[in-house]
Amino acid sequence: MPEPRGPAAKLLAGAVRVYQKYLSGLKMGSTCRFDPVCSTYALKAVSVHGAGKGGVLTAARLSKCGPWHPGGYDPVPNPGYWITETVK
Fold it and tell me: What is the pLDDT of residue 45?
């Protein structure tokens, strides 16, 4: 995974790492229905796309967390794209 560029991206990536290290372990087992898990998705999105677009992609991903969405494989889109088409 590339290093986040810019101070805002580094700040967001640091916040996600704090969540992963100190808060994620407080849950009883894995609760994310996506692959990769949401915190890993957030780190990659911010690292690849920067703070603005990576933050929007992460917010969109987190909005899918709920019983109304089946989950599954949902990778971070390649640079220059907003969505990733999944092959079924």
Answer: 93
